Amino acid sequence: MTKIAHCCCGSLRAEVGGEPAFVAACHCLECQRRTGSPFGVSAFFPKDQVRIEGPNKVYDRSSDSGRKVEFHFCPACGSTVFWYPAFIPEFIAIAFGAFADQSMPWPMLSAWEAEGHPWVAFDHELDHRRRQDD
Ligand SMILES: [Zn+2]
Ligand SMILES: [Zn+2]
């Protein structure tokens, strides 16, 4: 089943042909800044299951573990829609919220809790890591 993630204005889209391989919440400071939220949630798909469409700009940063992450965002509305994490090069990460779809699977991992806000908690069972290469 096809799912589509897109930016706020709709011009940058990522179309996927199935369910994500995994979903992770990340509480690191970079994810807080990127999303403007207390944590970010990523849906990871094998690269060959994703079709990208629309103009995008790139913002590169190093992760806290020193590896590169390449963020792609819409030049018109600024939403980051997907990114390439160098630590798992065969995957593309897509902004969970860009799917705006309640049927998406729940996060299986909560990473970088060491940098998270103490009032953020999940009510379902998932893996917890104080830190995580991201
Ligand atoms: Zn846009
Ligand atoms: Zn993070």
Would you kindly provide a written description of the structure presented here, covering whatever features stand out?
- The protein is built from one helix and eleven strands.
- It is mainly beta and 134 residues long.
- The chain has a single domain (2-128), classed as Metal Binding Protein, Guanine Nucleotide Exchange Factor, Chain A (Beta Complex).
- The strands form two sheets. Strands 6-7-8-9-4-3-10-11 form an eight-stranded mixed β-sheet. It has a three-stranded antiparallel β-sheet with strand order 1-2-5, with no helix packed on it.
- Strand 6 (57-62) and strand 7 form a beta hairpin.
- 32% of the residues are buried.
- The structure holds zinc ion (2 copies).
- One zinc ion (ZN) binds at residues 7-9, 11-12, 74, 76-77, 79.
Structure ligands: zinc ion
The share of residues in extended strands comes to 35-45%
CATH topology: Metal Binding Protein, Guanine Nucleotide Exchange Factor, Chain A
Output the CATH class name: Mainly Beta
Q: Helical element count?
A: 1
* Major sheet: arrangement of strands: 6-7-8-9-4-3-10-11
Give the overall pLDDT as a whole number: 93
Terminal CA distance reads 28 Å
Q: If classified by CATH, what would the architecture be?
A: Beta Complex
Structural class: mainly beta
Based on DSSP secondary structure assignment, what is the total number of beta strands? 11
Number of domains: 1
- State the helicity in percent bands: under 10%
Shape: globular
List low-confidence stretches.
Answer: none
Oligomer: single chain
Give the H and E element order.
Answer: EEEHEEEEEEEE
Cα radius of gyration in angstroms: 14 Å
Largest sheet: 8 strands, mixed
